[in-house]
Automatic annotation (TrEMBL):
<dbReference type="InterPro" id="IPR029069">
    <property type="entry name" value="HotDog_dom_sf"/>
</dbReference>
<dbReference type="GO" id="GO:0016289">
    <property type="term" value="F:acyl-CoA hydrolase activity"/>
</dbReference>
<dbReference type="InterPro" id="IPR006683">
    <property type="entry name" value="Thioestr_dom"/>
</dbReference>
<keyword id="KW-0378">Hydrolase</keyword>
<dbReference type="InterPro" id="IPR003736">
    <property type="entry name" value="PAAI_dom"/>
</dbReference>
<dbReference type="Pfam" id="PF03061">
    <property type="entry name" value="4HBT"/>
</dbReference>
<dbReference type="InterPro" id="IPR052723">
    <property type="entry name" value="Acyl-CoA_thioesterase_PaaI"/>
</dbReference>
<feature type="domain" description="Thioesterase">
    <location>
        <begin position="48"/>
        <end position="121"/>
    </location>
</feature>
<protein>
    <submittedName>
        <fullName>Hotdog fold thioesterase</fullName>
    </submittedName>
</protein>
Length: 142
């Protein structure tokens, strides 16, 4: 993949308004892989004072979306299943990594991990399926 094409894909994915709203940042984006970070704020906790599961899910989903679309082809989620493994709190920095495991035709499987940046502990894990449409938001070079 050309450097110019990778740059266009990155710019496209960086425009995610929901990620911006949450303060999430796509720090690594390359074909089949992404890393997204987020610092939990006081507005992101539940009534127990722990990070809301929806925030953790959203962070993993952003990493999944970035990695799934990292080839420049429009990709949408088919299935997302998440396991919550450790509670986190306001002030914690979370890192979501998504890695393409296999791709067959328009379907690809991704492994997503969400970790506490300070301790390295696994906060949540998910395996997600993406469907790649016959649309390219950054077309392949001929």
């Amino acid at each position: 993949m050309s450097e110019d094409r990778e740059k266009k894909i990155n710019e496209y994915i960086q425009r995610d308004p929901f990620a911006r709203l949450l303060g999430a940042k796509v720090e690594i984006l390359k074909p089949g892989h992404s890393r997204v970070t987020l610092t939990v704020t006081d507005d992101m906790v539940n009534f127990h004072g722990n990070t809301h599961g929806g925030v953790i899910f959203a962070l993993g989903d952003m990493a999944f979306a970035a990695a799934g679309n990292s080839h420049g082809q429009t990709a949408v989620a088919l299935n997302v299943g998440i396991n919550f493994l450790k509670a986190t709190n306001s002030g914690d920095r979370l890192i979501a990594e998504a890695t393409e495991q296999t791709a067959s035709g328009p379907i690809a499987l991704y492994d997503i991990t969400i970790r506490d940046d300070r301790t390295g502990e696994l906060v949540a894990k998910s395996q997600d399926l993406v469907y790649r449409k016959k649309e390219w938001f950054v077309p392949k070079s001929n």
